[in-house]
Amino acid sequence: MGFRAVLLDFRGTLVPAPTYRDLVRRGLARVGRASEPEDVEAVLTLLRAGDRSLVEAPDVDADAERHRAAHDHWFRTARIDEGLAAALYAVESDVAASPFACDAAPVLSALSAAGVALAVVSDIHVDLRPAFAAQGAAGGGSLADLVSAWVLSFEVGASKPDPRVFRAALDALGVPAAGALMVGDRGAWDGAAAELGMTALVLPPLTSPEERRLHRVLDLALPR
User: Fold this and answer.
1) Average pLDDT over every residue of 21-39
2) Which end of the chain, N or C, is more open, meaning fewer C-beta atoms within 10 Å of its C-beta?
3) Is the pLDDT of residue 36 over 90?
């Protein structure tokens, strides 16, 4: 009963995925410009007219340089000036600014205390370790101390749903697919873990840090 390991997605699962509206607002504020709703909408209009094809490529997160180049191309074709473009990319990459779900720390702490190994499996172009290190865990230490394996797409050179991503996590944890639970918010990506024999729990995307959804993980990983 239960699972020996739990693999967790990041954006949309442990923290809310940032919206473009929020990113633009923060980007404008970062360069000291007006960031009222009409100012944000003006930038969003420019971005909608730009070429997002490279940004939306399925493997864009598998290489940090490719991710930056894709966004540079989008901002350039959208006629965003260099100062604002740099600010937009900086806030998009600032994972530490994303608040963790209110139940993330207690749930991850409970899993670790029960002997369940944890891995963070994310399509991301920046290191997540500092963001986890800044979050306290129940009983002391940080959430980073609870994570046994980090499988970040830009480090492994592959993105979900590529099976190499899930295999990298299983190998790092030393558990078979049947003994691991993958938790995410995107069925076509996180749910692909099922093709390797893992159980996948796909939750509704987290939209607010106040939402409590992670108790479902405990229901499966630590059944009573």
Assistant:
1) 97
2) C
3) yes
